[in-house]
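thought: fold this chain, then report.
action: predict
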Amino acid sequence: MPHRRFLIPVAVVVVVALGIGLYLFQPWRLLTVRETHDALLVPSAPVTTSVQTSAEKPAETPKEVATGEWRSLEHATTGRASLIELPGGKHSVQFASLNTSDGPDLYVYLSPHPSSSAEKTFGEGFTSLGKLKGNRGDQVYEIPAGVDVSSIRSVVIWCQRFSAGFAVAPLEQA
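observation:
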């Protein structure tokens, strides 16, 4: 009988720990795909950087002002991210052909830090554009009014739950 008194609490602790581990890590997300098909504001093109001087009029059509390829951090990631100027002076960020792992609690951050910075840096001083829509496909995120786009140096896919970066892409305007 004393043996049972020991086994029951141990079994309860193991089951609770397993449940918490599954909730936090969500390992099945490594096998899931959430595909997004937003219409791109500017069709994907070879990597180039163009800049609009303050003397020019705002674009009458969406214009790519900065673009870069994803650099993998915690998870292999491919595709292109672009900063887009919209008519009227608003801005958006678009991801063309994004391909990364799915994960729990993924967000899109605009960072004032260059894409070559250490991973932990991207969790500081960012502007959140909200949850990542999907781990594959084309996506567009509106940049809220009041965000100083001249301070944006990179865009980051960030896991808030584990304070870890999945990937970063440069968005520096020349």
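thought: worth noting. DSSP finds one helix and ten strands in the chain.
final: tokens above.
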